[in-house]
């Protein structure tokens, strides 16, 4: 090794460190993605390797059957809930970066739901939303609001709102922690200068805090958008897509495993990927276009 030149040693080290990550990435990311695109042009049933090339038939079926995209309206509930979640996360982050007594305990309490497994979270909220012994209806009964009691998972007008609230409750702590890290990186001199100039708390937030965390806010909105489009675990575990709760990913999974149409499901996954990329481009170029 010592007899090799510095350039050869550097090249050998780079190859050694990059070989394993690149191999893993190719094996578990790019190859499955390429296979997914290939399967979307076939009629593969998911069992065996007998498949026929059908060209664009799967994509034609997706875009000619309106019910395929009707599930996206349920994803909208998670997107709206995600926007509320981002606002609340930023609000809590601003409060918990101040000199509030016991702020570390509040941080732990708000972050704890993210640590819980989705299955445990769903089981817990089944006990919250239950019509007869659910804690939510019991609370409403205790404070004299019996008229507000609902079958939260049986009412088709409320079930998606109820599920979106679970998602908002679970992931708010993660966004809050990210925002706290971003807020703590802002120099305190900026706030001191704002105080000297007579800026109010809202003016400091608008002209100092928001511009300083613009990139993090953009990332949070991006994750909110992609998370809403890919919502799966909570509606599937809680309702199995019943009572009008099926999202696009739930419908894709049912198409693959329930109806054994992996070719069509692969095409639906590719379409979802295209939708995600489309909205990411819109967000980057319209909402958070860099100043030149």
From TrEMBL:
Residue ranges annotated for the ABC transmembrane type-1 domain, each copy included: 71-283
Location(s) in or outside the cell: Cell membrane
GO BP term, pick one: transmembrane transport
Database matches in CDD domains: TM_PBP2
Keywords tagged on the record: Cell membrane, Membrane, Transmembrane, Transmembrane helix, Transport
GO cellular component, one term: plasma membrane
Bilayer topology: Multi-pass membrane protein
Record-annotated membrane-spanning stretches: 12-31, 76-96, 108-129, 161-183, 216-239, 259-282
InterPro entries: ABC_transporter_permease (IPR051393), MetI-like (IPR000515), MetI-like_sf (IPR035906)
PROSITE patterns noted in UniProt: ABC_TM1
One Pfam family of this chain: BPD_transp_1
PANTHER family per record: ABC TRANSPORTER PERMEASE PROTEIN, DIACETYLCHITOBIOSE UPTAKE SYSTEM PERMEASE PROTEIN NGCF
Protein family membership: Belongs to the binding-protein-dependent transport system permease family.
Name listed for the protein in its UniProt record: Sugar ABC transporter permease
Protein source organism: Paenibacillus albicereus
């Amino acid at each position: 090794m010592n007899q090799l030149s510095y350039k050869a040693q550097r090249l050998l080290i780079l190859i050694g460190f990059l070989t394993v990550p690149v191999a893993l990435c190719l094996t578990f990311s790019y190859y499955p993605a390429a296979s997914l695109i290939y399967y979307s042009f076939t009629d593969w049933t998911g069992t065996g390797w007998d498949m026929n090339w059908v060209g664009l038939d799967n994509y034609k079926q997706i875009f000619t059957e309106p019910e395929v995209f009707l599930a996206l309206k349920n994803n909208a509930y998670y997107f709206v809930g995600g926007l509320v979640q981002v606002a609340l996360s930023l609000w809590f982050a601003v409060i918990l970066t101040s000199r509030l007594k016991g702020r570390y305990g509040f941080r732990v309490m708000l972050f704890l739901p993210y640590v819980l497994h989705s299955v445990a979270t769903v089981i817990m909220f089944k006990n919250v939303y239950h019509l007869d012994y659910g804690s939510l209806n019991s609370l409403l009964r205790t404070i004299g609001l019996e008229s507000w009691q609902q079958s939260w998972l049986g009412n088709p007008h409320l079930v998606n709102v109820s599920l979106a609230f679970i998602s908002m409750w679970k992931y708010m702590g993660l966004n809050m922690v990210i925002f706290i890290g971003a807020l703590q990186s802002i120099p305190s001199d900026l706030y001191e200068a704002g105080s000297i100039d007579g800026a109010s708390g809202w003016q400091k937030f608008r002209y100092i805090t928001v511009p300083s965390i613009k990139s993090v806010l953009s990332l949070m909105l991006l994750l909110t958008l992609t998370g809403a489009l890919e919502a799966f675990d909570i509606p599937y575990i809680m309702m199995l897509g019943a009572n009008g709760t099926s999202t696009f990913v739930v419908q894709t999974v049912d198409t693959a495993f329930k109806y054994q149409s992996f070719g069509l499901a692969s095409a639906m996954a590719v379409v979802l990927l295209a939708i995600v990329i489309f909205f990411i481009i819109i967000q980057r170029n319209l909402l958070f276009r860099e100043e030149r």
